[in-house]
TrEMBL record, chains A, B:
Pfam families: Hydrolase. CDD domains: HAD_L2-DEX (cd02588). Its EC number is 3.8.1.2. It comes from the Bacteria. This is (S)-2-haloacid dehalogenase 4A. GO terms for molecular function: (S)-2-haloacid dehalogenase activity. Gene3D superfamilies: 1.10.150.750, HAD superfamily/HAD-like. The keyword Acetylation does not apply. It comes from Paraburkholderia ultramafica.
Length: 242, 242
């Protein structure tokens, strides 16, 4: 059984694990799509936008492109998706596109996230380890009262998960041993990469991250150190009082 | 008059401005010096240790040495000061030196710091912009309840204040204009460097940072945008309710 008393810091994936990106992005898309008379369902557009996420980061993970923060990739991906839907992007003002791009800064937490994080924070260092950039995480945390002790992640180490250096360098920044750090994510792939770097792992199931027909990440695909129904459940499993 | 309504984020120097490093380091030194039978006053030793701070960082600021985090410099400086006092450092265990080096992680805030930061946090993004490394700032914040929204600073940008890139890159990370960011420090030199990069500036006087005979930084040496008696006073000047 995993020795939970050894854990000193918890690192959290954020998009999908702590916040509901799909509903939040669709909410900000709706008035934009109406204003621009773009006849696409807001959830479908959000999914299309998100599908550009991994390929865009792959350019950087592979070394073909130097590191740029996620706001830049989101903005490029937005133009790509609009173009794919037949929109003439030069007819839309840069300000309007910038504002829409900030939808990713304004996402709502899942109902258990804030309480779970507050409980976990009393016993552990809690830090975000997201591919989102620092200002994105900061805007999100201020709006949603996410009580991070620190905002770590891609921009701090200038690399994108699941590149091993993200986990390795973050553990080094924390001044801890890998086994003293636990990665918390709703994505088996993130946990698999963290485990290869020696971190402990906690799976949190988020069955509607991708909407009602979600097929991926519905179950733990390895025996992770912890598997939890939500962040409150994880807090209970890690011995944090309510 | 400075337009305070434009300010969105406050960046804080930490050693001396938010926490009392001299008393804290001397407190941890006392049992060590006794145990090792080193006959030096703990405040004198703390001052000697701190005097190595700027020259050590200058090696990195000048480009003669690649960036290393402050914990590494503090550890090297400790050996240097011990040797200067005639101590045979090879007679002291690495664990004991490491533990003493963590004195910088356990500093107490000035009496007004936590309340002032909590008031400021309600209206602004508050982030540390220290030369201290992330784990140092994190340990300090957890112990002293410093409510940072984010821990920024030297390790994130891999450069030491007052190098201009520290201020410029941090403002860029925040996604703000320089004039929307205010540097808060008890040191005129830090503020002068921030002003050259276009940031707003707030001086907080800390007349006993260097002990009862302090001669430097007792007064604002330029007309900074704000000059405050402490962080509570700054919160009041910036319109934050108690």
């Amino acid at each position: 059984m995993t020795n939970r008393s050894e854990i000193k810091a918890l690192l959290f994936d954020v998009f999908g694990t702590v916040v509901d990106w799909r509903s939040g992005v669709a909410r900000d898309l709706r008035p934009f799509l109406t204003r621009q008379a773009i006849r696409v369902d807001s959830f479908e557009f959000a999914d299309a936008w998100r599908r550009q996420y991994a390929p865009a980061m792959n350019e950087i993970r592979s070394g073909r492109r130097p590191f740029v923060r996620l706001d830049v990739l989101h903005r490029e991906n937005l133009l790509r998706v609009l173009t794919d839907y037949g929109v003439n992007v030069s007819s839309i003002s840069a300000d309007e596109l910038d504002e829409l791009n900030r939808a990713w800064h304004h996402l709502d937490p899942w109902p258990d996230s804030v309480e779970g994080l507050l409980r976990l924070k009393r016993r552990f260092v809690i830090a975000s380890l997201s591919n989102g950039n620092i200002s994105l995480m900061l805007d999100m945390a201020k709006r949603a009262a996410l009580p991070w002790d620190a905002i770590l992640g891609a921009e701090v180490v200038r690399a994108y998960k699941p590149s091993p250096q993200v986990y390795v360098e973050t553990v080094e920044i924390l001044g801890l041993a890998p086994s003293e750090v636990c990665m918390v994510a709703a994505h088996n792939g993130d946990l698999a990469a963290a485990r290869l770097c020696g971190l402990k792992t906690a799976f949190v199931v988020r069955p509607t991250e991708h909407g009602p027909a979600q097929k991926s990440d519905l179950h733990a695909e390895q025996t992770w150190d912890f598997a939890a129904a939500d962040l409150n459940d994880l807090a209970t499993q890690l011995g944090c009082p309510t």
